[in-house]
Design a protein that fits this description.
With about 400 residues, the protein is α+β, with helices and mostly antiparallel strands. It contains 16 helices and 11 strands. The chain has a 6-stranded mixed sheet. Strands 5-11-10 form a 3-stranded antiparallel sheet.
Length: about 400
């Protein structure tokens, strides 16, 4: 086997440099994640799209834990895949995946999202009203984070007083730079909180998605306890972490490309297309969630052995010149159809309608309220989150 690439701080701050090299020289490459887990990175668009829909690349959570434990034993390291929050629909194959996805699908249809638009607009307006004019503001803390966390927590029925703790635990669980004890503490706290929240909703149900999921479980046993807890976890994390990054990354892309910002201001009707370009250009998710091989699987000219983890590099695929012309350039008029920011196949993001609606409202209102918004620091001073899964800024200082 080729010597694995070690993914360190340089990769976390700028993955595109490595991805350019991999697509050109080693499009399917073994790598070591910061915690030591060995994976195979798929970096070209055509290979990535095919891998996302390949039934030979499995997502069974129990088998993932076994493979992680086996690797840890081989390398005398700590398993990086935990049990309690892992049995959600992103880590299941059909027919279990079909069953789990169907339970939440009704909450994220285009019709249901249209009903949520007035409330999303209200939340965004309140947040923008609270931002101080003429001062340096962290747009991540002041807008990009509180908008989606409020929306998804209201949808699920999570009390406002609990959201700060939830954000803290999530940030730790997604941070590849924290130690074993810190990860375990955050996982235990999250599990304890979710179990208590589920019990509270069972005693006193509301008109929220979590109450509906509990009712489905209690009615015909279609969700076991682990599945219910993991479902709430993945909806909460997926429902806000990705949106924080989409708003932050997209705003930065516009501020670094004033010609594109001017074009969007001149034609606000182009916003939906611009959002698709933000997703392609510097999307909120770096790697698709883990898959693994159950047999030797050829991808391109490389055969990945059985029993290996595979990660599809969404950021890399979306900048493949074989698929998108001048992929390093932000072009809000680009034909972006087929970008992989929301995945592909049966695991295509269930919340894509909600994400697009929030993004349209967030960017539309931000640019309308603050036509003179500009970066308050040089781009080189910005830092990116310490995560191989997510692609997002720690902070985005702007002057309004």
């Amino acid at each position: 086997m080729t010597e694995p690439i070690r993914l360190g701080e340089q990769f976390l701050q700028d993955p595109y440099q490595l991805y350019d090299r991999l697509r050109a020289e080693q499009p399917v490459a073994p790598a070591l994640l910061p915690h030591g887990l060995r994976v195979w990175i798929v970096s070209r668009y055509a290979d990535a799209r095919a891998a996302l829909a390949d039934p030979r690349l499995r997502k069974d959570s129990v088998r993932q834990q076994e493979l992680s434990a086996r690797q840890a034993e081989e390398t005398n390291s700590t398993p990086v895949i935990t049990e309690f929050l892992n049995s959600h629909m992103l880590n299941t194959d059909p027919p279990d995946h079909t069953r789990l996805r169907k339970l939440v699908g009704a909450a994220f249809t285009s019709r249901r999202v249209a009903e949520l638009r007035p409330r999303i607009t209200e939340i965004a307006g309140e947040l923008l009203d609270a931002l101080p004019r003429g001062e340096v503001v962290d747009l991540v803390h002041g807008f990009a984070y509180p908008l989606p966390i409020t929306v998804i927590c209201e949808l699920l029925g999570v009390p406002e007083s609990d959201r700060a703790d939830f954000r803290s635990w999530t940030a730790t669980l997604l941070n590849t730079g924290v130690g074993e004890q810190e990860l375990a503490a955050a996982s235990d706290a999250m599990v304890g909180y979710l179990d208590a929240l589920i019990a509270a909703k069972q005693r006193s149900p509301g008109q929220d998605l979590l109450s509906a999921l509990i009712e489905a479980r209690d009615a015909d046993d279609r969700l076991d306890e682990d599945e219910l807890r993991a479902m709430v976890f993945v909806l909460l994390v997926g429902g806000h972490e990705t949106m924080v990054n989409l708003i932050g990354n997209g705003t930065l892309a516009l501020l670094r490309n004033p010609d594109q910002l001017a074009a969007l201001r001149a034609d606000p009707a182009g916003l939906p297309a611009a959002i698709e370009e933000f997703l392609r250009y510097d999307g909120p998710v770096n790697f698709a969630t883990f898959r693994f091989t159950t047999e030797d699987v050829p991808i391109g000219e490389t055969t990945i052995p059985a029993g290996e983890f595979v990660v599809v590099a969404l950021l890399s695929a979306n900048r493949d010149a074989r698929r998108f012309t001048d992929p390093r350039e932000l072009d809000i008029d680009r034909a972006t159809a087929g970008h992989l920011a929301f995945g592909h196949g049966v695991h295509y993001c269930v919340g894509a309608h909600l994400a697009r609606a929030q993004a349209e409202i967030a960017f539309g209102m931000l640019l309308e309220r603050f036509p003179e918004i500009r970066l308050a620091v040089s781009p080189g001073e910005l830092t990116w989150r310490h995560s191989t899964l997510m692609r997002g800024l720690e902070a985005l200082p702007v002057r309004l």
